[in-house]
Amino acid sequence: MKEKKGSFSGSIGFVLAAAGSAVGVGNIWRFPYLCAKDGGGLFLLIYLVLVLTFGFVLLTTDVAIGRKTKKNALNAFAAICPKWKFLGYLTFLVPVLIMTYYSVIGGWITKYFVEYLVSGDNVPAQDGYFTSFITSKAAPIVFMLLFLALTAAVVYGGVEKGIEKVSSFIMPVLVVLIVAIAIFSLTLSAEGEDGTVRTGMQGLAIYLLPDFHGLTVKRFLEILLDAMSQLFFSLSVSMGIMVTYGSYVKDDVDLNKTTSQIEIFDTGVAFLAGMMILPAVYVFLGKEGMASGPSLIFISLPKVFSAMRGAGRIVAIAFFLMMGFAALTSCVSVMETLVANCMEVFHQTRKKMCGLIGVYSLVTAVLICLGYNVLYFELPLPNGSTGQLLDVMDYISNSFLMPFISLLTSILIGWVIGPDWIVGEVEKNGECFTREKLYRFMIKYVVPVVMLILFLTSTGLWNR
Ligand code: PFF
Questions:
Q1: pTM for this prediction
Q2: Which of 53, 174, 209, 435 is buried most, with the most CB atoms less than 10 Å from its CB?
């Protein structure tokens, strides 16, 4: 039985839902630690240039493909050009892989939120807390289940009544919380072990000022790669998600304006996340603490909250609530993409496909949780690092598939059917495509070349 296709009520509903997908753990967790690792303002500057060029091109392409074909990735590429049907399958594979682990991370956030809410002391600040939690057998599965059930409930509610409604509530709350915590973070100060006083404003300066120290061409390329892969993940592009959300956009919505708003929202939140986290970490853990990498959120931040004493618990609750919100709307977009694609392909109802994808998500997420104990292994990855199950999924989807899909999409749009196809969709209602020339140039020449380099480098096929 075929169900009527859902749609967002209008431009604001679409922007908030798409921003809900884009703003997630990538902005709040990954962006600040990459920034601290890659020279502060230098990374910021590079990232900003990439958002305005690559981000804009890839986001516009995805959304326009969705709206013009009114189909999900699995059918959209075939509708553009039947020979390119395979690209739809490849694109669909990304949310299939991301779904396996995103709800697991959502579960970790839920656990921290609950822990701060119910236990008065700063339990998560204890040494070994995070490792002992993720390596335990039952707890990560229980919290993942909770997070997954919430996600499924929103997706089950449908496009307008579920996704749009929840995003329209969550996104403004998220912005208020993040701004409030960022302001608080800037007012902090504490005495370090060496007796000098460290302030939030000094931490802000380290975050914002470009650090050119030891910059070589190789190092610059590394930063560029970090920024580029962050951009894909953060904007949720080249994974069929924005194609699906684009297919729910009504024809009278101004795509030129809305894609710019999504870019601004996503980058703005990432920037604010840095402002919220890095100054506080600097004040209590010093410069070395700022460069603690992926452990920043789950290991370093609890120590910061603990050092804040009284206010720490309240800030921690607000922080993990905000982060849980961000993760929820992102996870919803991944699940929605899977459900919507299956509804279209199998001609089934939302209810049935929610059940199917729910079971898939549950089984795979349990396996990912077990990847930290009974299924533990360390697999060498082609980019030189090693990883267990979650890292492997993340590597295949983000480092391997996303640049490859962007490369193929840019060849399809730039050379096979021509950029007019997208430009026409953006200008459909007589709107002006403000960065049209840039779009044409980028999609034809720059995106294919850079994506090829990115793909070869991140897969280890080409050693810098
Ligand atoms: N854009 C989200 C973030 O920055 O966390 C992550 C994300 C959402 C990635 C949805 C992939 C995805 F399919």
A1: 0.94
A2: 174
Cβ(254)–Cβ(429) under 8 Å? Answer: yes
Q: Three-class SS of residue 384?
A: coil
ipTM of predicted assembly, 2 dp: 0.95
Ligand 1 contact, 334 CB (< 6 A): yes
Largest CA distance in the chain: 71
Tell which CATH classification among 3.30.70, 1.10.150, 3.30.450, 1.10.4160 matches the domain 11-458.
Answer: 1.10.4160
Higher-confidence residue of 211 and 133: namely 133
The pLDDT-based confidence of 1 (bands split at 50, 70, 90) is: low
For the chain, the average pLDDT equals 93
Domain boundaries, the chain: 11-458
φ and ψ of 384, to 5 deg: 100, -15
Residues with Cβ within 8 Å of 285's Cβ and at least 6 positions away in sequence, in order, are 292, 300, 303, 304
- Residue 424, amino acid: G
Q: How far apart are CA 327 and CA 276, in angstroms?
A: 17
Nearest alpha carbon to residue 459 among 407, 383, 398: 383
Mutating to test ligand 1, I would choose from 102, 109, 332, 397 the residue with most ligand atoms within 8 A of its C-beta, which is 102
Supply 35's token pair: 């920034």
Whether the Cβ atoms of residue 251 and residue 4 lie closer than 8 Å to each other: no
Q: How many Cβ atoms are within 10 Å of 125's Cβ, its own excluded?
A: 18
| Cα-to-centroid distance, 152 and ligand 1 (Å) | 16
pLDDT higher than threshold 80 for residue 195: yes
Contact 319, 141 (CB under 8 A): no
Give the position of tokens 């089984």.
363
* Token pair of 61 as six digits: 């392409």
